[in-house]
Structure to design on (199 residues):
């Protein structure tokens, strides 16, 4: 990308059918697409232009690419946008504030999103962290998102090792999901909240 230390290439995923590598570029609101037909000589093909928002994560879902797109303004919810591997837009679903990591269940029927909800104390705004589960069982173009809020978590639910420390923040505002993973049978979603020392 020619850009150093500015989130120009953070997360990558590979589509075996086209031998293409997809790389999120939050600095330029793009997803870079490279050919890996010759792994010793990667070839840049094109950019998927997002127009607005910044890509925080990309993951291949079957023959589509899912991109977690954060809104340009703190406190505005993001979305997951789906594209075919040639870059054409397919569908989008709403997610939480500052969507970060994406993960797909082993059977490909579910997509999970860690919505980090990081604060901007200069404004000041502190969005709630959350997770989103996207049902892909009817295909990407019919994907439906369900938001999973943390607003029901009470202080007595947390042990002393879990850090809730944001200025005047509720538990839901202070929990900042960084990554998500499905259990083997897809019955549970594990959410890591790195800043809070919690799972």
């Amino acid at each position: 990308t020619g850009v150093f230390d500015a989130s120009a290439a953070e997360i990558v995923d590979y589509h075996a059918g086209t031998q293409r590598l997809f790389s999120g570029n939050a600095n330029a609101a793009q997803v870079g697409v490279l050919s890996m037909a010759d792994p010793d000589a990667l070839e840049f093909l094109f950019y998927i232009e997002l127009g607005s928002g910044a890509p925080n994560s990309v993951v291949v879902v079957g023959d589509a690419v899912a991109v977690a797109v954060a809104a340009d303004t703190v406190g505005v919810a993001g979305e997951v946008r789906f594209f075919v591997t040639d870059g054409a837009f397919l569908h989008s679903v709403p997610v939480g504030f500052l969507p970060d990591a994406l993960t797909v269940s082993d059977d490909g029927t579910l997509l999970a999103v860690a919505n980090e909800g990081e604060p901007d104390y200069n404004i000041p705004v502190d969005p709630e962290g959350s997770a989103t589960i996207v049902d892909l069982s009817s295909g990407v173009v019919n994907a439906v998102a369900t938001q999973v809020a943390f607003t029901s978590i009470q202080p007595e639910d947390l042990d002393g090792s879990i850090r809730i420390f944001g200025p005047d923040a509720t538990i839901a505002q202070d929990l900042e999901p960084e990554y998500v993973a499905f259990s083997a049978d897809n019955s549970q979603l594990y959410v890591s909240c790195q800043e809070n020392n919690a799972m």
Summary: Helices lie at 171-174.
